# Entry
Amino acid sequence: MTAATESSTGPGEQAVDMRTSLASFQLPNPVLTASGCAAAGRELGQFFDVAELGGVVTKSIMLKPRSGRPTPRMAETPSGMLNSIGLQGPGIDSFIANDLAWLKQAGARSVVSIAGHNTEEFVNLAKRLYNHPIDLLEVNISCPNVESRGQVFACDPTASARVISAVRRAANPNVPIFAKLSPDVTDIGLIARSVADAGADGISLINTLLGLVIDLDTMRPALGGVTGGLSGPAIRPVAIRCVWQVHQAVPHLPLLGMGGIKTGADALQFILAGASAVSVGTAIFNDPHAPVRILAELQAELAARGFASVTEAVGFAHRAVAEQEEFFASRKLGVGA
Ligand SMILES: Cc1cc2nc3c(=O)[nH]c(=O)nc-3n(C[C@H](O)[C@H](O)[C@H](O)COP(=O)(O)O)c2cc1C
# Structure
């Protein structure tokens, strides 16, 4: 076991096996960063060893360098924040040469997030990454489709499926692909089933919710981009509801859950709702150590409830009460522990 998989148990608590998997990607523990909240991991390297995490999810990368949306790009909201960064970034070539190379030499597991304006751009990104050492491809379909009057791919089951099946065909078959879903839909289970049928190996959820803040001094939208993405603890119940519904819709697919995770107890809610691993985003902005702290807290939360491994807890909240009781009764008798 590495340092990250050993349990920080207290007196009387059992060790917890923190290993998990996201399709064929084996992780020593279930805590990753969230796309866009830790660039490509280098900034976090000054606070802790990024190889201790389950993985680093990079900011969504596009084909060409982009400067993002107009300023101001951040507004405070109750228990959260609104951002309109846009997909600012160096473009795929620089990303591969600098960021991916850095992650590799740091010994981190790399989850690369890609974003495109149309299906062809997603395909080209998958092809560019084909021969590079990545552990998982997260396909950010929560961005506007220029071929459909700017409608977000993830809000349309057909457009979502088209991108995912094209990326699945173009990407290295040894690399699992996860579709990242938007919560801004009526039926997230429908979108989940359509990306599953299109060949997604798993699902990441949720991206930010679309929001707007009016600045009362200027009496105009506070963000230069007018609307922005709402993140942080304010969205957590929405995110857990989405994980719950998607787990029910596609129980065979692994889920990477996120949205407002600030503590190990928050992370545990996602796991019990059906996530095999979690990403930490906004919490990093006021506590750069948040991912490693949350990992230690999650281990303690699992141990305190008698779980011997994180995988035992995945989707546990969906089980019938009698089945849950039977699980813990067998544990007390030492069965399966
Ligand atoms: C500043 C900022 C930038 C983000 N950029 C991306 C991005 O490039 N790609 C993406 O898929 N999600 C992006 N997200 C969404 C996060 O990855 C995450 O899904 C969302 O913020 C919910 O998690 P949180 O509440 O822990 O931040 C961004 C979020 C924030 C706050």
Q: What stands out?
A: The first strand starts at residue 20 and ends at 22. The chain has ten helices and 18 strands. The chain has one domain: 20-332. Residues 241 and 273 are 8 Å apart (CA to CA).
